[in-house]
Every structure is written in C-alpha cells, then in structure tokens.
C-alpha cells in the first residue's frame, strides 16, 4: 500500500509539475481529497451500514460548509510534514525516477484503479446508505 501511495504521489507530482504553479500544493490537495473519500467511505460503511447508526453532519445553518475542513486540514498538515519535514518527497522522486516501461505500465494501472475505485466505492456506499435509511 505504501508503494501505491508513493507512486500515486510521484505520478500526481509529475502531472502537476508539467505546467502548473505550486505542483506540491496541488499534489497534496489532490491526495488529501482522495484520502478524505476513502476515510468517509470507511466511516459510512462502519457506522451507517454495519452499526446502523445515523451520523448527522452539520447543516448549512450550523456552519455545515466548514465540516470538511476538520479532516482536510490535519491530513494536509500530516502529508506536508511527512513529505517535506521528514524528507520523503526526495526519496519518492529518486525511487521512481528510473522506472522501466513495464513497471510504469503496471504502476499506472494501479494508480488509475485506485483513483476510479475510490470514487466508485464512495458512490456505492452513499447509495447503500440511502437505501438503508429509506427502510
């Protein structure tokens, strides 16, 4: 799993550094959003589906626009610390810089699969939650 996340970071960093400003910030933001999808999927799976507990999130009237910041900010800070302060950014770049065509194909497939499956599982879990709540 660590290999997949490292490669995902490498690919996203290469993508954003090819023409954008602040490639590391864009990469960290993208990874954080997908980590958030994964965390919310697991959270919904455990509490809403397995434990049958209705989790009530804040609404617009009660500062509901800000609740996503609760997990996003710590995730961004944790990833920033891990990559920059501890120096893993350069280790990841060195690890994948000289990859072969075969390795690049396999790893790209895994990265795309992670991207697509994260979104699909998130949507499926939300759909299952709606079905359960209607009953």
Textual characterization of the structure:
The protein is mainly α and 135 residues long. The chain has one domain. 78% of the residues lie in helices and 0% in strands. It is built from five helices and no strands. It has helices spanning 2-17, 23-50, 69-85, 88-97, 101-134. Helix 1 (2-17) crosses helix 2 and helix 2 (23-50) packs parallel to helix 5 (101-134). The chain is globular, with a radius of gyration of 18 Å. The termini are far apart. 8% of the residues are buried. The mean pLDDT is 77.
Cα gyration radius (Å): 18 Å
- Low-confidence segments, ≥5 residues, pLDDT <50? none
Distance between the termini: 37 Å
Average pLDDT taken over every residue: 77
Shape category: globular
Helical content stands at over 70%
**Biggest sheet features:** none
Strand content: under 5%
- Specify the number of helices: 5
Order of helices and strands: HHHHH
Number of domains: 1
Give a short synopsis of this structure.
It is built from 5 helices and no strands. By secondary structure, it is mostly helical.
Key features of this structure:
135 residues
Produce the secondary structure layout.
Blueprint: H1 2-17, H2 23-50, H3 69-85, H4 88-97, H5 101-134
């Amino acid at each position: 799993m660590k290999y997949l996340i490292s490669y995902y970071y490498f690919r996203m960093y290469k993508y954003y550094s090819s023409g954008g400003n602040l490639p590391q910030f864009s990469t960290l933001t993208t990874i954080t959003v997908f980590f958030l999808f994964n965390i919310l999927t697991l959270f919904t799976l455990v509490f809403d589906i397995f434990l049958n507990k209705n989790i009530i999130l804040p609404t617009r009237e009660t500062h509901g626009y800000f609740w996503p910041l609760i997990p996003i900010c710590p995730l961004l800070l944790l990833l920033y610390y891990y990559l920059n302060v501890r120096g893993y950014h350069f280790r990841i770049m060195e690890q994948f810089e000289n990859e072969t065509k075969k390795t690049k194909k396999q790893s790209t497939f895994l990265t795309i699969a992670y991207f697509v499956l994260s979104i699909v599982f998130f949507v499926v879990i939300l759909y299952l939650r709606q079905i359960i709540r209607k009953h």
